[in-house]
Design brief:
single chain, 325 residues, Lipocalin, four-stranded antiparallel sheet
């Protein structure tokens, strides 16, 4: 089966062979008069359930964000978690949730109204039970919140060896340019690392990608940064999962919005999305050294690249591409 959270506000289940619809279930139906709801996240399928984020169309206007849960076989809606109380707006869940081996759901949330007195569960990383009951939360401190300073990318679940012990962790990068590494059990902060500029610094590339984890390191695509004395509009880097220390960082001429992918040979695929005169490209990067191995030019690259069966698939402004070995 193929599951699609579509712009019409429904979750669709399609037969993978024929693409015939098997069922559909409402997520949040967009208004015909107001530009309100839009699906940004892809469905996450785990343990017989499907989770989908509830979000606005770029905050114009804000909506009441949340996560909806469905039965995988029937499409019946089981539960909904809202990030703000009824009658309030904000806290869109822009990206796909992560689910760990125990079935716990991890979601990142968007901003609320400007100058809101109560932030509720906006600008946060949340841990929810399989039935979407709140178990723990981490919120960006008020002093570190910037304009449009939400979490735009999915959380990454990973493990780290700290003082000789394996620690279950989860992390995400906020648009303030800081990546937060949290203990998965209670979402207490273990480390934080600035990896790029703030979204308020008027760069198109923002810190909203999800990190890739290969079992040893985190690989993150970042916004503008300075390496040495040279300023770059985008970057890709490797982080130590135990400390957040940057192992290597490679500057890119354009900003990055999409998440990096990594294959089993240690090749990272990351694409740029920017409005400069420099062409946007997908870069193949050596995961061990950070060296750029090759550039591919499919145009604006917003979706994540995918490695599968010896091929690399990219989707950009000029079409869908399959790149051979």
């Amino acid at each position: 089966m193929v599951y699609v959270a579509a712009p019409d506000g429904y979750l669709h289940a399609l037969d993978a062979a024929t693409m015939q619809q098997r069922w559909r279930s409402a997520i949040a139906i967009p208004s015909t008069k107001v530009n309100d709801y839009l699906r940004w996240s892809s469905p996450t399928v785990a343990h017989g359930r499907i989770y989908v984020g509830i979000s606005s169309n770029c905050d114009t206007p804000l909506v009441r964000g949340g996560v909806a849960e469905y039965d995988q076989a029937t499409g019946h809606k089981l539960n909904t978690f809202y990030t703000v109380p009824k009658g309030h707006v904000g806290g869109s869940v822009w990206s796909s949730v992560a689910v760990d081996g125990s079935g716990n759901v991890f979601a990142t949330t968007g901003n609320g109204p400007d100058n809101a007195t109560n932030l509720y569960h906006t600008v946060s990383i949340l841990k929810l039970s399989p039935a979407l009951k709140l178990l723990a939360s981490f919120q960006v401190p008020r002093a570190a919140i910037v304009g449009d300073g939400d979490f735009g990318g999915s959380p990454t679940v990973f493990t780290a060896t700290i003082k000789g012990k394996s620690v279950l962790m989860v992390g995400a990068c906020n648009k303030n340019g800081i990546y937060y590494g949290l203990r998965r059990s209670n979402l207490t902060k273990i480390w934080q690392r600035r990896i790029g500029v703030k979204s308020s610094e008027k760069v198109l590339g923002q810190c909203q990608a999800a990190a890739a984890f290969d079992g040893h390191f985190l690989y993150m695509a970042g916004p503008g940064t300075t390496i040495g004395a040279k300023r770059f509009r985008g970057s890709v880097l490797r982080l130590n999962p135990a400390t957040g220390a940057i192992g290597w960082q490679t500057g890119l001429p354009n900003g990055v919005l999409t998440s990096p992918s990594i294959n089993r040979s240690g090749v990272i695929g990351v694409g740029t999305y920017d409005n400069t005169t420099r062409p946007n490209e997908t870069y193949l990067v050596n995961a061990f050294t950070g060296a750029i191995l090759r550039t591919l030019n499919p145009g604006f690259d917003f979706p994540q690249s995918a490695f599968a069966d010896g091929w690399l698939y990219t989707a950009g402004s000029t079409g869908l591409y399959a790149w051979g070995p």
